[in-house]
Amino acid sequence: MYLKFNNIEKAAWWLKTMENLKKSIGKDKLAKVMHACGSKCCGITSRMRAKLYWSQSKSIKKFIQNLNKHHIGGGRPKIINEHTIIGGYDTCYCGQVKYTQKPFLSDSYCQCSTAWYKQLFETALGKPVKVEIKQSIIRGAKTCEFVIHI
Predict the structure, then answer these.
(1) Domains and CATH numbers, the chain
(2) How far apart are CA 143 and CA 128, in angstroms?
(3) pTM score, whole prediction
(4) Which of 28, 35, 36, 149 has the fewest Cβ atoms surrounding its Cβ within 10 A?
(5) CA 73 to chain centre
(6) What is the pLDDT of residues 9-43, one digit of tens each?
(7) Residue by residue, what is the 3-state secondary structure of the chain?
(8) pLDDT for res 110
């Protein structure tokens, strides 16, 4: 038998599942699970386009302009300084949780998005980056924001 959830039920299931996973395997292991999801969620098309835009850019500024022009990475990454970019979304793009009726209690689910940005920027730039969550919609913020350290 196949169970079918509507969008609100699915988001509630994920909320409860994330709480249970955090209790049973801990925050660090859960982050690793979600990083694996996010790395796969950043598909080959987005990665290859980002790599192409970087190869065509003469600067990080031009690269970010191209990402925004093509709405990659939420369409609004902005440069803070030569080593820091703020990325984010004005809406939650994850069909699994974007209809949540209750805020998620931790940022564990959104570790998926940190890995998505990490995969995108590391593929394009060819070097490691670090990504951290500033805020997320499913935790009650108006937007999602991530700091990308290059």
Answers:
(1) 27-149 (3.90.1520.10)
(2) 26
(3) 0.91
(4) 28
(5) 8
(6) 999 999 999 999 999 999 999 999 999 999 999 99
(7) CCCCCCHHHHHHHHHHHHHHHHHHHCHHHHHHHHHHHHHHHCCHHHHHHHHHHHHHCCCHHHHHHHHHHCCCCCCCCEEEECCEEEEEECCCCCCCCCCCCCCCCCCCCCHHHHHHHHHHHHHHHCCCCEEEEEECHHHCCCCEEEEEEC
(8) 96
